[in-house]
């Protein structure tokens, strides 16, 4: 089992930056594919980005490509999300998630991810 705890959310002006962290418990962090999802008020949770077990491969939603960067430090059991050029539409609760295998081969599906953090609020003001 993996416990995930996000941090780093907050209030930022449009055009600003934030860095989210996700601390994972357990000794097998490097065995998990990791992802970030977000849920805005009144909307369904959506895929943001994912990273492979070694960190060699990354995947992004079109809406964040070029602005967000996912990374991981397996030695520190920590996942990161660097968010630059933030927009008001990025306002949401951000969740990190972990999964051992890909559901249907998809990095983007919520079903790939078994463990979820409690979320951290990101608010971007215009």
Question: Describe it for me?
Answer:
It is a single chain. The protein is mostly beta strands and 126 residues long. It is built from no helices and 11 strands. It has strands spanning 4-7, 10-13, 18-24, 33-39, 46-51, 58-60, 68-73, 78-83, 92-99, 115-116, 120-125. Strands 2, 4, 5, 6, 9, 10 and 11 form a 7-stranded mixed beta sheet that branches. A 4-stranded antiparallel beta sheet has the order 1-3-8-7, with no helix packed on it. It is globular, with a radius of gyration of 13 Å. The mean pLDDT is 96.
Summarize the structure.
With 126 residues, the protein is mainly β. It is built from no helices and eleven strands.
Global structural class: mainly beta
Principal-axis shape: globular
SSE order, one letter for each helix or strand: EEEEEEEEEEE
β-strand amount:
over 45%
Largest sheet: 7 strands, mixed
Radius of gyration: 13 Å
| Average pLDDT for all residues | 96
Distance between the termini: 40 Å
How large is the count of helical segments? 0
Helical content class: under 10%
Q: Unreliable runs, pLDDT <50, ≥5 residues?
A: none
Q: What's the number of extended β-strand segments?
A: 11
């Amino acid at each position: 089992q993996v416990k995930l705890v996000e941090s780093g959310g907050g209030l930022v002006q449009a055009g600003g930056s934030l860095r989210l962290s996700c601390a994972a418990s357990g000794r097998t962090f490097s065995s998990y594919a990791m992802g970030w999802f977000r849920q805005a008020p009144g909307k369904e949770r959506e895929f943001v980005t994912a990273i492979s077990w070694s960190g060699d491969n990354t995947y992004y939603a079109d809406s964040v490509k070029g602005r967000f960067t996912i990374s991981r430090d397996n030695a520190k059991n920590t996942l990161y999300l660097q968010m630059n050029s933030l927009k008001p539409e990025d306002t949401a609760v951000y969740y990190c998630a972990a999964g051992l295998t890909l559901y249907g081969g998809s990095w983007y599906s919520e079903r790939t991810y078994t463990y979820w953090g409690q979320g951290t609020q990101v608010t971007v003001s215009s």
